[in-house]
C-alpha cells in the first residue's frame, strides 16, 4: 500500500462519519468512557475494533506480541492501571488468535535476539502444561492449544495484580479470555473463572 493512499482513506472515512453525524468528531473529542480493556496481539490480521464490531471510544486497547501480560512490562502495566483505576473499566479481555506467529516462534529452538526474554514467557506456559501439549501429535493443533493456554495464563497474570484484585473486591470487575479463529472469523470464549482462580492464588498473590 502506498502511504499516500492512507491519507485518501482518512479523508473518505471523515466524510462518511460526518455524513452520518455532523457532530461525530466534536463528540469524540469530549473524552472517553470505555467499559472494556482489550489486551491483544500485535498481529496485523487481528484488529480489536473490527473483530468486535465496536466504535472508537468504546474499547481501551493494548497490543503486543502474543498478547502477554508481563508484570515487568511497564507498558502493559501502565495501561492496565490507567484503565482500571482511572477509566474504571468493567471488563478486561485477553484475546489471542490461532496460528499466532509469536507463539510459534517461542517454540523454535533458535536464538531470536531481543525477542528471547519476551517469548520465554510463552515457553513458561508450555512448561506448565507440558504433559497435555506433548500428548498432541499434530503440530498445528499443539500450537493452537498453546495459544489457548497462553491466553488463560495471561488472565491469571492479570488476576495476580493489585489493580484487578482491588477492582474485583470493590466493583466485581470481570476478566475474559478469548481466542480469535482466523479461519472462521469467530471469537471463542475460554470461560475464565475469575473467582475460582482468585481463590486458588490468593494465599501467595494477595495484594489487597
Count of domain modules: 1
Can you give the mean pLDDT? 93
Q: How does the helix and strand content classify structurally? A: alpha/beta
CATH architecture: 3-Layer(aba) Sandwich
Q: How is the largest sheet built, in terms of strand order? A: 2-1-3-4-5
Please name the fourth-level CATH homologous superfamily: Carbonic anhydrase
CATH class: Alpha Beta
Number of strands: 5
Count of DSSP H/I helices: 10
Strand content: 5-15%
Computed CA radius of gyration, to the nearest angstrom: 19 Å
Distance between the termini: 49 Å
CATH topology: Beta-carbonic Anhydrase, Chain A
- Output the helix-strand order: HHEHEHEHHHHHEEH
Give the biggest beta sheet: 5 strands, mixed
Helix content: 40-55%
Q: Low-confidence stretches at least 5 residues in length (pLDDT < 50)?
A: none
* Shape category: globular
Task: Lay out the secondary structure.
Layout: H1 3-20, H2 24-28, E1 36-41, H3 48-52, E2 59-64, H4 74-86, E3 91-97, H5 101-106, H6 115-128, H7 130-134, H8 139-159, H9 162-171, E4 174-180, E5 187-189, H10 194-205
Parallel strand pairs: 1-2, 1-3, 3-4
Antiparallel strand pairs: 4-5
How is this structure best described in words?
By secondary structure, this protein is α/β, with parallel strands linked by helices. A five-stranded mixed β-sheet has the order 2-1-3-4-5. It has a single domain, classed as Carbonic anhydrase (Beta-carbonic Anhydrase, Chain A), CATH 3.40.1050.10. It contains ten helices and five strands, in the order H-H-E-H-E-H-E-H-H-H-H-H-E-E-H. It is 52% helix and 14% strand.
Amino acid at each position: 500500500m502506498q502511504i499516500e493512499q492512507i491519507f485518501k482513506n482518512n479523508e473518505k472515512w471523515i466524510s462518511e462519519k460526518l455524513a452520518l453525524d455532523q457532530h461525530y468528531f466534536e463528540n469524540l473529542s469530549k473524552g472517553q468512557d470505555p467499559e472494556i480493556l482489550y489486551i491483544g496481539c500485535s498481529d496485523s490480521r487481528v484488529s480489536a475494533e473490527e473483530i468486535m464490531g465496536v466504535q472508537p471510544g468504546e474499547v481501551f486497547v493494548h497490543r503486543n506480541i502474543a498478547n502477554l501480560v508481563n508484570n515487568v512490562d511497564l507498558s502493559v502495566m501502565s495501561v492496565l492501571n490507567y484503565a482500571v483505576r482511572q477509566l474504571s473499566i468493567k471488563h478486561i479481555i485477553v484475546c489471542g488468535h490461532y496460528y499466532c506467529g509469536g507463539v510459534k516462534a517461542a517454540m523454535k529452538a533458535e536464538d531470536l535476539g531481543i525477542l528471547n526474554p519476551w517469548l520465554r514467557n510463552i515457553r513458561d506456559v508450555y512448561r506448565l502444561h507440558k504433559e497435555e501439549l506433548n500428548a498432541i501429535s499434530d503440530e498445528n493443533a499443539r500450537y493452537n492449544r498453546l495459544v489457548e493456554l497462553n491466553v488463560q495464563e495471561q488472565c491469571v497474570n492479570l488476576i495476580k495484580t493489585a489493580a484487578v484484585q482491588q477492582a474485583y473486591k470493590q466493583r466485581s470487575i470481570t476478566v475474559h479470555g478469548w481466542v480469535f479463529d482466523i479461519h472462521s472469523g469467530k471469537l471463542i470464549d475460554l470461560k475464565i473463572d475469575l473467582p475460582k482462580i482468585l481463590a486458588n492464588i490468593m494465599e501467595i498473590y494477595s495484594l489487597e
